[in-house]
Design brief:
Helices cover 23% and strands 29% of the residues. Helix 3 packs parallel to helix 4 (196-208) and helix 9 (402-414) packs parallel to helix 10.
Length: 588
């Protein structure tokens, strides 16, 4: 792009010089070549976050432009193209289910095509196949306009499911009732106002954008006034075998209305009770399912009769009974630092969800969790990671560190996961309403590109393939490569093989000063851009095509690369790498 702007500036100088030298005073010195006004970045939006097969897609751009070509692409294949006319247009994608597409806008300059805009499209009949999970955490007296802005923004990141964090009244009595009708408002555990109307309207507005809504609640939580709501102490978990000390999650009295008391998930009377309260939610609010939470390993605990309870073993029966009770509702259970994940993924949860904590601080840990979830689910479920970046920085007001976020997302996305990070704000803490850190304009722009990339190439990133270690070396010494896991001063190489192609991810840790994803204080360095470097890949297959795409380059659009193959040696040049790039080598 820059070289064309330089050309344009030179043309302007020449025009000014010629016009000053002209003997014809009537010559139009205000003439500007067409290229000058047409090379712009075009912001494109879709009308929904995800689409059912056969559903019409409506695009809109921020202005009208001439001489722009629209290309509709599946991976690197152009399905069709047309000229852009006006600020709104429609497209019916192929009828295939669970496919991602990239819609690219180009301007031809000097016989080259310059990408000036792009947007991705997900065509999937079930959002949990490729979950891109966001959250909502504020349910006060919010105007329709404010809610519309929040949902429209999340739609632009293609967020297709939302966790309604702490929307409820009490954990054991989630929907407050006024007689036979829901109460108009209540206080959550942090003493914040919650309005039924706000929750209801958020659900409706989300559905209009094809975004699912999940009701958040612990699977085993109660407040200290549990007895007044017909919850029995005999359903509780205890720290002793004589049922004298109820196991509880302590909260600051200045902040919270109650500590959280822990019930026994294996107790069928508790299950019957909380399922009935959940049915009351579904009867009054059009939630798509239940996002279940837990509190991790509670140590040695006992039931009321003094028997030791293995909480992990209770997850499976609880989830099985829940699915039988609500067969048409989605469900997902947070495996806190993988606690209980093997039992959870044996049940009918709709995707894997892990909140990542201490002991899993490295970038390699993020990848290992995703791969572990793949194995536990027999490669049938994709993963969402709740991983809170710049954690200590979020104790005070500030701005997220852009390299922290992009490197973490590059790793999570390259290994086939997605990142719970976007809601009314971006997450820096496990208490979702914390919004101390802002998103810079640079990070916001980059995140749009990363989420477009996640959607457009989801059939390579999240839809099969086997991870491997390709034999890739630098052909000219411009970069230093190392197969995963990452090390300082290296570009990490991640391979994944399909029957007809080899995928190679390059993640640039060459300039990283930190190899822990959380980057608690926001100190991660920005990687320098590496340009025009040669790579040699050992391949014993006949290569038909090599192409490259990066969320940091050309709006994420794919570009075919010239290559030579001599025996098992495949040689090609990568145009640019900053954070993350993806090479696709296609075979016969």
């Amino acid at each position: 792009m820059k070289k064309y702007l330089i050309k344009i500036l030179c043309c302007l100088l020449v025009l000014i010089f010629l016009s000053n030298c002209s003997k014809n005073n009537n010559e139009d010195i205000n003439y500007i070549p067409e290229e000058i006004v047409e090379i712009v970045e075009i912001n494109i939006k879709t009308d929904k976050a995800v689409y059912a097969p056969g559903e019409k897609i409506v695009f809109s751009s921020d202005n009208a432009y001439s001489n722009i070509t629209i290309k509709y692409k599946y991976l690197n294949k152009v399905l069709s193209q047309e000229s852009l006319s006006g600020t709104s247009w429609e497209w019916y994608p192929p009828s295939d289910d669970f496919k991602g597409y990239m819609i690219e806008l180009y301007r031809s300059v000097d016989e080259d095509e310059i990408a000036v805009g792009s947007v991705a499209v997900d065509v999937s009949s079930d959002w949990t196949k490729f979950p891109r999970y966001g959250f909502l955490s504020k349910f006060g007296d919010i105007s329709d306009n404010q809610m519309n802005q929040v949902i429209d923004n999340l739609k632009d990141y293609h967020i297709n499911g939302l966790q309604y964090y702490d929307w409820h009244n009490k954990h054991h009595l989630p929907l407050k009732m006024d007689g036979d009708s829901p109460a108009s408002n209540w206080l959550d555990i942090a003493k914040r106002d919650t309005y039924f109307r706000t929750v209801e309207n958020y659900i409706q507005k989300s559905k209009e954008m094809n975004i699912a809504s999940m009701s958040y609640n612990l699977l085993y939580g109660a407040w200290e006034d549990f007895a007044t709501d017909e919850v029995s102490i005999e359903w509780m978990l205890f720290n002793d075998s004589n049922h004298q000390n109820i196991n509880k999650h302590d909260l600051d009295d200045n902040w919270a209305l109650s500590d959280i008391l822990v019930l026994n998930p294996a107790n069928t009377l508790w299950q019957d009770y909380i399922f009935q309260k959940t049915r009351n939610i579904y009867n009054n609010l059009d939630f798509d399912g239940w996002h279940l939470d837990q509190l991790g390993n509670r140590g040695k605990v006992y039931n009321y009769n003094g028997d030791v309870v293995n909480i992990e073993d209770s997850f499976g029966p609880f989830l099985s009974n829940l699915k039988n009770t609500f067969p048409n509702k989605k469900m997902v259970l947070n495996a806190v630092n993988q606690y209980g994940q093997s039992q959870i993924l044996n049940e009918s949860v709709d995707f894997a969800y892990t909140e990542v904590w201490d002991g899993n601080e490295g970038f390699d840990d993020l990848a290992s969790i995703i791969q572990n979830n793949n194995t536990l689910s027999n490669n049938s479920l994709n993963t969402v990671l709740a991983a809170y970046l710049n954690y200590d920085l979020a104790n005070n007001s500030g701005v997220f560190n852009t390299p922290s976020v992009l490197l973490a997302d590059a790793v999570i996305f390259a290994f086939g996961g997605s990142h719970l990070e976007l809601g009314e704000h971006m997450l820096g803490k496990e208490y979702f309403p914390n919004n101390n850190l802002n998103i810079s304009s640079e990070l916001k722009k980059n995140l749009r590109s990363y989420y477009n990339f996640l959607v457009a190439y989801q059939n390579l990133l999240r839809d099969g393939g086997t991870f491997n270690n390709p034999e890739l070396v630098s052909g000219d010494g411009k970069i230093s490569l190392r197969n995963w896991p990452p090390v300082f001063s290296k570009v990490s190489v991640i391979g994944k093989e399909f029957s007809d192609k080899q995928i190679i991810h390059l993640i640039n840790f060459s300039d990283s000063n930190i190899l822990t994803w959380r980057d608690t204080h926001g100190d991660q360095n920005t990687p320098q851009i590496r340009k025009d470097f040669m790579l040699n890949l050992t391949s014993n297959k006949i290569v038909t095509k090599v192409w490259y795409a990066s969320p940091d380059l050309n709006k994420g659009s794919s570009r075919e690369l010239e290559f030579t193959q001599n025996g098992n040696n495949l040689v090609f040049k990568i145009p640019s790498l900053q954070y993350w790039g993806m090479i696709v080598v296609e075979y016969n």
